[in-house]
UniProtKB/TrEMBL annotation:
Residues 18-323 form the NAD(P)-binding domain. This is UDP-glucose 4,6-dehydratase. In the C-terminal section; belongs to the dTDP-4-dehydrorhamnose reductase family. One of its GO terms (molecular function) is UDP-L-rhamnose synthase activity.
């Protein structure tokens, strides 16, 4: 027996209800209510789990025996026909639709397909199967078009339908089909037209949840146009009750408005949200471009439904407070919704729900809600797969678990880009494609057509496609469009700002880049221009790396410049995409660094043998074709957005240290106030040794690092297992030629003889020093290791390194230290 109040003996009693779009906002409240109040109704919930629906919305139903969820699309006629028959459905409540007005200005075919064609498929299935006793079609107040602000008379159900936007046009179109199936085939239909609904579970593309989530983050509330548009807001539970009433008491063939007389303008809503969050509304409100068309008001005559016995119960203040409390408690309900919080989100920015049916409905018994759906909601389309930055971006996405695909299209071929966008449906597009010239930008001087095709035509085409699909393009551009001038002198600390006009067109490459940047300003709503300069990464094997480049030149100039440390800034570009940053950004680390400063670091910490020669700009001009830009970019805009951004020098130090100096792997040592020079030299060689090692370096029991890598400071060592009185390099196996003669010469014949061929036990420890020369005087540690392992399996082995890469002087000192001939305090 039913327990819900509105159903009575005289009212309609459904047996098995199909609810379409059940995991969406309004339908989920209706489903949860019906499941709870009417245990003898069977409910089949159908939803394709689009971006704005979530199985989480149906959690209250999941263990009810009268509930069944099916993932499927109403536009699939076979599925719908089968379902009606197999599930023996007698009632349909049809909520499934594309419902967001803003989206419909971008991709209205989706709306026609879902809202009109989908409804048609359902109606036709009802006609064919002939089992439906009640078909409740959910429409909207928007089908009446806008209401005059002056009038007090709401639209009664008999009003003319005059939709104004693509969304409401599709809803009106669907209504026409419903009416036609009622008249032509006698389908028992009822249509509802509702005001705006709000409350928990709503996808935050809609005004109220969007403003609440933005206010929670302390971000600005975007007001479309002047914010005077008025809407009437109903709380979701009241609306669920209205559907309950209509289901049971509605009259076949009738239309029911679900309305309220309580109206709020967008500015009122913003002010109320600010009040709840104690924010200053004047500071928080931010006016943005309006929708192409924005109905001023929808005003309904709500008497007809009231006569059936329904009444709105929740006051605005109460409803808004409850909604705010819910979003505050469930900030991650929808995962990463940064795209939806955009002032004008588009459907292609939003990804399908990644709800896992199993997770939520099969194995839900032992899962907690926090485990459900930690999806980021992002999907990147990246151009520049074979390039350096494009490759690094892909790797970064993989590491961060961000879904991405490389574009197949060529930038200059518009159709191929459109195909990529349609196929991938990305939330953001990254453009790291283009030509920079091989081996350098001089190439562009002799390949002007190719340069224009890729860097000008291609970039602009992609920007235009992104605009057409309302997508944000993160464009890797260049900062090499400026040169020091009177207002921005070298060493002055005054850098070029984002709004400055490029003043360097010395090379064809820079010239075209400056032109493109200017033209991209016309796409400022869809493009984020990142001015990269002299990119640096810890991957020294890449010839595009500025450090690698200058370390290979015969002679280099020595001029301070702004530069981009990709290890730090590429993750920031992803964060910028999430935040939907637009416009131009100097994408460099704050401050400048000179060629020599970089090469000094390289010499000191990567290759002590490294030498270079400087020359001046005049001399340089003789060996290059086009002049190069030298400048300082003002990175304060980026620093304001990302206060943790490191200065160029600190950034290089941090990332090189992290990559080349891994803790806990290498050495066992006792170091009190040891001379730092000695250690610094050893540490410098560790990356080289590791790179040459064909064995994996095992986790040691000691962390050893230089506290401020690349600068002077005390050596810091941390022991996890007792102190050792000797220095050892542990588990460094180098499969290479060992120079025994040199060892004899340096250590003295006698000592070297003692060492060679001897497997000695280390004093006060289990560790063993091993030296096994082969007959030809060469030493192969790999085979030695195998021999020793077999003979002395229970010992931990330490190996002494004697290798070309290690300067002999240091090697000897280390040798002496191992054999206690040298106190660790002794200076090298
Ligand atoms: O960031 C934003 C988002 C919205 N708005 C404005 O807020 C109002 C409400 O917008 P929204 O929440 O998107 O709702 P509507 O466009 O009024 O449409 C909703 O209400 C209709 C009933 O009136 C339903 O049919 C639709 O499916 C539902 O999306 C509109 O004037 C928008 O221009 C802003 O000013 N800033």
């Amino acid at each position: 027996m039913s327990t819900g109040s509105p159903a009575s003996a005289s009212s309609y009693a459904p047996r098995k209800i199909l609810i379409t779009g059940a995991a969406g906002f309004i339908a989920s409240h209706v489903t949860n209510r019906l499941i709870k109040n009417y245990p003898d109704y069977k409910i089949v919930a159908l939803d394709k789990l689009d971006y704005c629906s979530s199985l989480r919305n149906l959690i209250p139903c999941r263990s009810s025996p009268n509930f069944k969820f099916l993932k499927g699309d109403i536009t699939c006629a076979d599925l719908v026909n089968y379902l009606l028959v197999a599930e023996d459905i007698d009632t349909i409540m049809h909520f499934a639709a594309q419902s967001h007005v803003d989206n419909s200005f971008g991709n209205s075919f989706e709306f026609t397909n879902n809202n009109i064609y989908g409804t048609h498929v359902l109606l036709e299935a009802c006609k064919v199967t002939r089992k439906i006793k009640r078909f409740i079609h959910v429409s909207t107040d928007e089908v009446y078009g806008e209401t005059d602000l002056e009038t007090d008379i709401g639209n009664p159900e008999a009003s003319q339908l005059l939709p104004t936007n693509p969304y409401s046009a599709t809803k009106a179109g669907a209504e026409m089909l419903v009416m036609a199936y009622h008249r032509s085939y006698g389908l028992p239909t009822i249509t509802t037209r509702g005001n705006n609904v709000y409350g928990p579970n709503q996808f935050p593309e809609k005004l109220i949840p969007k403003f609440i989530l933005l206010a929670m983050k302390g971000e600005k509330l975007p007001i479309h146009g002047n914010g005077s548009n008025v809407r009437s807001y109903l709380y979701c539970e009241d609306v669920a009750e209205a559907f309950d009433v209509i289901l049971h008491k509605g009259v076949i063939g009738h239309v029911y408005n679900i309305g309220t007389q309580k109206e709020r303008s967008v500015l009122d809503v913003a002010a109320d949200v600010c009040k709840l969050f104690r924010l200053n509304s004047e500071e928080t409100i931010h006016y943005v471009q309006d929708r192409p068309f924005n109905d001023q008001r929808y005003f309904l005559d709500d008497q007809k439904l009231k006569k059936l016995g329904w009444q709105e119960k929740t006051t605005w203040d109460e409803g808004l407070k409850k909604t705010m409390d819910w979003y505050t408690k469930n900030p991650h309900w929808w995962g990463d919704v940064s795209s939806a919080l955009n002032p004008h989100p588009s459907i292609s920015m939003l990804t399908d729900s990644t709800d896992n049916y199993d997770t939520l409905f099969m194995k839900c018994g032992n899962r907690t809600e926090t485990q459900i759906g930690a999806d980021s909601g992002l999907k990147f389309l990246i151009y520049g797969r074979s390039g350096w930055i494009g490759g690094l971006l892909g790797k970064l996405c993989r590491d961060k678990g961000i879904v991405f695909e490389y574009g197949n299209g060529r930038l200059e071929d518009r159709n191929s880009l459109v195909n990529d966008v349609k196929r991938i449906r990305p939330t953001h597009v990254f453009n790291a494609a283009g030509v920079t010239g091989r081996p350098n930008v001089d190439w562009c001087e002799s390949h002007k057509a190719e340069t224009i095709r890729a860097n000008v035509v291609g970039t602009l085409t992609l920007a235009d496609v992104c605009k057409e699909h309302n997508l944000l393009m993160m464009n890797f551009a260049t900062g090499c469009i400026f040169e020091y001038d009177k207002e921005h002198r070298q060493g002055s600390g005054i850098g070029f700002k984002e709004e400055d006009t490029p003043n360097f067109i010395g090379s064809f490459y820079s010239k075209t880049k400056a032109m493109v940047e200017e033209l991209l300003k016309e796409y400022d709503q869809n493009v984020c221009t990142l001015r990269v300069r002299m990119p640096i990464s810890t991957d020294l094997s890449n010839p595009r790396n500025f450090i690698t480049k200058i370390s290979r030149y015969n002679k280099v100039v020595n001029i301070p410049n702004s530069m981009t440390v990709l290890d730090e800034l590429l993750p920031i570009s992803i964060e910028m995409a999430k935040r939907n940053c637009r416009g131009i950004w100097n994408f460099t680390n704050p401050g400048v660094i000179s060629h020599n400063e970089i090469l000094e670091m390289y010499r000191d910490y990567m290759d002590p043998e490294f030498k270079w020669e400087n020359f001046n700009l005049e001399e340089q001009s003789k060996v290059i074709v086009a002049p190069r830009s030298n400048n300082e970019l003002d990175a304060s805009k980026l620093k304001n957005e990302f206060p943790e951004l490191l200065s160029i020098r600190d950034s290089i130090i941090k990332f090189f240290k992290a990559k080349y100096l891994k803790r806990g792997h290498v050495a066992v040592c006792k170091v009190h106030n040891t001379d730092s020079q000695f250690w610094r030299k050893i540490l410098r060689y560790i990356p080289i040794l590791l790179n040459n090692s064909n064995r994996k370096v095992r986790d040691g029991n000691v962390s050893l690092w230089y506290d401020k890598f690349l600068s002077s400071g005390p050596l810091f060592a941390e022991f996890s297992e007792g102190e050792h009185s000797q220095i050892m390099l542990k588990d460094l196996v180098i499969d290479n030629v060992w120079d025994v003669e040199e060892l004899q010469r340096l250590l003295g014949l006698e000592k070297a003889d003692k060492v060679m061929g001897r497997v000695g036990k280390f004093r006060n420890s289990e560790d063993v020093i091993l030296w096994l020369p082969e007959k030809n005087g060469c030493f192969n540690t790999k085979s030695a290791w195998d021999v020793v392992r077999v003979r002395l399996p229970k010992f931990e082995w330490a190996k002494w390194v004697w290798h070309k890469c290690l300067p002999k002087k240091i090697a000897v000192c280390m040798w002496k230290a191992v054999f206690n001939c040298l106190s660790v305090d002794e200076k090298v």
